[in-house]
Amino acid sequence: SDLAASIAGGLITVIVASTLVYAGVGPVFAPSQTAGLRTLPPAENAHGVALVNVAIQLAGCIGPALYVGIFSSSGFVAAVTVATALAFAGFLIAWFYARREGSAKRR
């Protein structure tokens, strides 16, 4: 009974957290892709879109494999720590990129 309640509580937590993460991907991903492609000349837009799509596919393959490998060898805490560090690094890169783009537009 306690185990079932614990599993149900954990499952609800995972579902809520996943929903929040996935809800944030769209509002972040589309503008960042647009900002990146906007820096290309119009004749190279098709190549830029292709490169972005390849990067998405690679991340979709490598990311889960990396986290499962870390989880299997070092445990859940290590996998979550790596995921958090990579998310924070991505946030910092996006932050500095957005600031650089914003200051370039003001000139």
Describe this structure in words.
The protein is mainly α. 92% of the residues lie in helices and 0% in strands. It has helices at 2-38, 45-74, 76-106. The longest helix is centred in the first third of the chain and has 37 residues, at 2-38. The chain is elongated. 0% of the residues are buried.
Strand count, sense and closure of the main sheet? Answer: none
Q: How many separate helices?
A: 3
Structural class: mainly alpha
Average per-residue pLDDT, rounded, comes to 85
| Shape field | elongated
Order of helices and strands: HHH
Could you provide a short overview of the structure?
The protein has 107 residues and is an all-alpha fold. The chain has helices at 2-38, 45-74, 76-106. The chain has 3 helices and no strands.
Protein topology:
Layout: H1 2-38, H2 45-74, H3 76-106
Tags for this model:
mainly alpha, 107 residues, 0% strand, 92% helix, 3 helices
